[in-house]
Design brief:
By secondary structure, the chain is an all-alpha fold. The chain folds into 2 domains: 19-210 and 276-491, MFS general substrate transporter like domains (Growth Hormone, Chain: A, Up-down Bundle); 223-275. Helix content is 78%, strand content 0%. The protein is built from 21 helices and no strands. The protein has helices at residues 16-24, 30-46, 50-62, 71-94, 96-115, 120-148, 152-183, 188-191, 193-207, 223-246, 251-273, 282-285, 287-317, 322-328, 330-350, 352-370, 379-405, 414-450, 457-487, 492-497, 504-511. The radius of gyration is 22 Å and the shape is globular. The relative contact order is 0.15.
Length: 512
Amino acid sequence: MPDTLTNVSAPSSSRGSELEAAAGTADPRRWWALVVIALSQLMIVLDASVVVVALPSAQHALHISAANRQWVLTAYTLAFGSLLLLGGRIADYAGRRRTFVIGLIGFGAASAMGGLAQDPAMLFGARALQGAFAALMAPSALSILTITFTEARERARAFGVYGGIAGGGAAIGLVLGGTLTQLASWRWTLLINAPIAVVAILGAIRVVRRDGGASHATRGYDLRGAVSATAGLFLLVLGFSAANTHGWTAALTLALIAGGVALLVAFVAIELRAANPLLPLRVVLDANRGGAYLASLLVGIALLGTFLFLTYFLQGTLHYSALKTGFAFLPFSAGIILGASLSSRFLPRVGSRRLMTIGLLMACVGLAWFTRLNVDSSYLANLLPAELVVSTGMGITFVPMSSTALFGVDPETAGVASALVNASQQVGGALGTSLLNTVAASATAGYLATRLRQPDAAAVATVHGFTVGFAVSAALVAAAALVAAWFIRGSHRDDSGSPPGDLVPVLAAVER
């Protein structure tokens, strides 16, 4: 990797005061700012999964069909993932704190709307709005984090907190969703965000340092790019869903998938020619960052579907209540926290490539362990050990993955680079939910067709479908480990000790 202290362009003048402040003295309110960022990140990540355990109750209350229930999950992840790049660009131009606060306000309002939904359309729309405002909030939060913590050890610690939440939020969402559904109502899985958002808004205004956006000369929104990327991802999700009902070779399925791919190819062509591209391709063409984003996408495809399968296994096969299902995921959260803590401690000495590869291989082993589940499996003997292996491995992975994805970016693309960290996971989650659900349903139908006379054939076939889904997830995470081992390069100092691109020119001046 080139020496970033001499290979990064100077920051724009509009950010000069911000960078000078960062270089001169550490922000005395930085740890409070981390609390606010952690709170917002927790809301963003857990909302992708908080309704999973509550979904059967919401489906019954609002009379949502079996074919449409996936949109409670997909509407959020699809809107979030496909709009994140635009959100990152808005953060670059309008200012991080301003965009962050607007995102919090909209997210809280959309959450209240979802909790008060009277029909499926209102719920799906609210979930899509949540995703859209999360797409404003997430890249702003991560950009704020990268400029607030400039000292290597503090920055590693801050990313440890952020990585732990990014990885553990989904599991925490399952616990919270089960608890709220059992003790109150499924509506509170959404309503609870409103008061939390108010606290985060007040905290952001008080402790997050104000910043300016990019210079007026460089402003411009790539709406063609945003439309093509969003429409392309939407068609892919529809195509994977259509495969569940029409089959993989049906004309509708093939047309939707082909249309999605064509629009994504058009998106790349647009970005190559756009004056102010939504995704400057230099951000992803760097081997380290590109490898981190690709690994993150593969992990995103694998994990949300895994949570869905485990939830239905616990409730449908082991007959757990919503509350008991939520608590069954607590060890997953503990493993994420343990792994993230270990990762943040060893990152300065071991480096990103080794940590990411080790963590992903651990997660792969755990997912492969899940493929051994059957109708007679027990939680303590069969599910819990695999859960701990997967979660610890992912906790080890998320810290270096987030740090590497932001390494060496220039000031004008800090927001979009931050957006890609979340976008890759959320787009993966949207695609993975549809893809893995279709794979599992097809495996279940195929198994059942040949074993109709077998005792408990339906239950056995359902678990078989889950195990096939787990096998696909394990293969995806194994591919992510290969990507990390092949693409991630750089010295240990490059991996963890150097700051993101926003601050490199300032520290270079200080060193001189």
